[in-house]
Amino acid sequence: MSLNETKKDEQKRVDNVAEIINDKIQKATDDLAKAHSETGKIERNYGENTKVNTFEVDDQMETNASVQQQKQLVYLAVENENILESNKLKLENLQGSPYFGRIDIVEDGEKDTLYIGTSTLQDDDGDFLIYDWRAPISGIYYNGTLGKVSYPTPTGTAEVDLKRKRQFQIIQNKIKNMFDTNETVGDEILQSVLSEYSDEYLKSIVATIQHEQNTIIRDTHSDVLLVQGVAGSGKTSAILQRVAYLLYHSRSTLSADQIILFSPNRLFSNYISEVLPSLGERNMRQVTLNEFISLRLTGIQVETLFERYEKDERNLPETMVNMRLYKESADFLTDLENLENKNKNHLLYFEDIIFEGRPFFTKEEISDIFESQNKAFSIPDRFLKTKNTLIKRLQKRIRHDRDDDWVQAEIDNLSDEDFQQIITDHKIEESTNQRSIIAEEFLKDRYAPIYNALINNYFFDPYKEYLYLLSHMQQDIVSQKIWDTMIEAIDHNVEAHKLSLNDAIATLYLRDYITDSGINGGIQHIFIDEIQDYTMAQLKYISHAFPNAKLTLLGDRSQDVLTSAYRNKDVITSINELFAKKHVTMISLNQSYRSTAEITNFASQLLPDTEKIKAFSRKGEVPTVKVFPAETDYYKGLKDTARELNKKYETVAILTRNQAQAEQVYAHYGDESLVTLVTADYRSVPKGILILPIYLAKGLEFDAVIAHNVSAENYPDSRSRDTLYTICTRAMHSLTLCAEKELSPLIKMPTEIPEKVN
Ligand SMILES: Nc1ncnc2c1ncn2[C@@H]1O[C@H](COP(=O)(O)OP(=O)(O)OP(=O)(O)O)[C@@H](O)[C@H]1O
Question: Which amino acids does the record list as binding ATP (predicted)?
Answer without folding.
Answer: 229-236
